[in-house]
Design goal:
By secondary structure, the chain is an all-alpha fold. The protein has twelve helices and two strands, in the order H-E-H-H-H-H-H-H-H-H-H-H-H-E. It has a two-stranded antiparallel ribbon. The termini are far apart.
């Protein structure tokens, strides 16, 4: 009964979140980072595509209460922490970060039960903040789509349908289930959430090769030795920082505090285009 309750509520939240998402026009260019470059854009301004949808979502409180899963949490992130995160990862745009946090917070009642069912900690929802700023219709010219930014081949591998008429990556429930299973498998493979997140970003083969070359499964060590790409060296600390911003906790089992931090990197640049 509890499962049915949150599923009904999830549908209420998702309808509100996605009703206008497909009428928005935002494309996301994912820029590769490289050693020695002062990173300036890889997630700037993922901000307006679903703000109107979220405003609508706040007007369905009665339906949410009936559904029984919506959050009443209006707690705002610590302003100093948010500012630091914006300076480090979001081109100093505090307001854009604040809106993105609000979107992900409203998605949490949908995401958290699925993550838990698949054996993945709730804190992993921070990945959505970094990947898509919580925008269900987010996409990149490389072909990644949805809040989890699945590439087509990986999406199909985890049971999502992508064809001329259907793209399950845009279905928050289905894509979250697929992402949770993928992340669970990555953690089972590497035994550490830092490496699991690295593999989510750059692929299992790259991380596995780095582990084999070094004989180490310590993300901080692999970063210091530059055995994984610069983009990934910045990506993993960003997800850890996002987790702390959203929940006050880092992803379980990580050694984020020991990670080598690259120059500022932002995780997508918005551009105008048709969805």
């Amino acid at each position: 009964m509890r499962k049915r309750s949150w599923q009904l509520g999830a549908l209420v939240v998702l309808i509100a979140l996605t009703a206008s998402a497909f009428s928005q026009t935002a494309a996301y260019a994912v820029l590769a980072a490289s050693v020695g470059i002062d990173f300036s854009s890889y997630h700037q301004a993922l901000s307006n595509a679903v703000d109107m949808a979220l405003a609508s979502a706040t007007r369905v409180d009665a339906s949410r209460q009936v559904a029984g899963v919506a959050t009443n949490d209006t707690t705002q992130p610590d302003a100093t922490m948010l500012h630091r995160f914006a300076q480090q990862y979001w081109n100093g745009n505090d307001e854009a970060v604040r809106r993105a946090v609000s979107r992900v917070t409203q998605l949490k009642p949908v995401l958290a039960p699925i993550l838990r069912e698949e054996g993945v900690p709730d804190e992993i929802a921070a990945l959505v903040l970094v990947e898509s700023a919580g925008k269900p219709a987010a996409r990149s010219p490389k072909g990644a789509r949805g809040i989890w930014q699945f590439m087509p081949d990986t999406a199909r591998r985890f049971g999502l349908t992508i064809n001329g008429g259907t793209d399950d990556r845009l279905d928050v429930l289905k894509s979250t289930r697929a992402a949770a299973r993928y992340l669970h498998d990555l953690h089972a493979q590497f035994g550490d959430w830092s490496l699991a997140l690295a593999a989510y970003n750059v692929g299992e083969t790259v991380v596995q090769n780095a582990v084999l070359r070094s004989g180490s499964k310590d993300f901080a060590f692999l970063s210091r030795k530059r055995l994984i790409p610069a983009e990934t060296r910045a990506y993993v600390p960003a997800v850890m920082a996002a987790s702390h911003l959203l929940t006050g906790r880092s992803v379980l089992g990580s050694n984020a505090g020991e990670m080598h931090r690259e120059s500022t990197i932002l995780y997508a640049t918005s551009a105008t285009g048709n969805q």
